[in-house]
Amino acid sequence: MVSQKTIDLVKATAPILKERGEEITRKMYQLMFESRPEYRLWFETTFMTHVDGGSQPNKLAGSIYAYAIHIDKLDELKKTVEKIANRHVDSQVIAEQYPVIGDFLLLAMKEVLQEQATPEIMAAWEEAYTALADIFIQREKELYQDDDVKLVASLKSQRFFNH
Ligand code: HEM
After folding, report:
1. Residues 19 and 112: beta-carbon distance below 8 Å
2. Is the minimum distance from the CB of 46 to ligand 1 under 6 angstroms?
3. Residue-wise pLDDT tens digits, 52-104
4. What is the DSSP letter of 116?
5. Residue 62 Cα: closest atom of ligand 1
6. CATH number for the domain including 37?
7. What is the pLDDT of residues 12-26, one digit of tens each?
8. Is any atom of ligand 1 closer than 6 Å to the C-beta of 133?
9. 13 lines ligand 1 (CB under 6 A)
């Protein structure tokens, strides 16, 4: 759980994110692909298909905004988290990629919001992003383990039928 100060600051930035969130996420993908071009490979149905990423910048901005307004009532986000986590597992996203996305997201926030992105707000968002990333990492770990269990079961049954 994040600190009360972070909750207050993150909630206070929600209106700015509603207005400028997509500008921030567009900037984030631009900075990320400049520095890590290989990351495009994960975005099969978005950036690999559409130059501007199709609906992806808008979806990411929407999920960050939803997080900002629900940061103290995360239960309400369970269904959304589940959907995104499954999408990530389908795309083979790994835990190590979260800090990379996080760094570029914070950098983009700073570039777009300029003086509005005070050091206090940036520190709050760093803590908040890490907490959200941990939620996804944990759930995706479970989903990957479920896949492993299914794979092992399927291999065992194949062996059973082959003998
Ligand atoms: C807290 C961090 C993150 C949030 C809030 C987030 C949010 C989202 C959302 C809302 C979608 C769209 C889901 C849908 O279409 O239903 C999505 C898809 C996706 N995300 Fe994330 N994401 C995060 C971190 C990451 C990381 C670390 C990666 C690693 C590269 C990643 C890669 C992807 C990919 C590959 C897709 C599918 C895009 C495609 O099909 O082209 N995301 N994410």
Report:
1. no
2. yes
3. 999 999 999 999 999 999 999 999 999 999 999 999 999 999 999 999 999 99
4. G
5. 10
6. 1.10.490.10
7. 999 999 999 999 999
8. yes
9. no
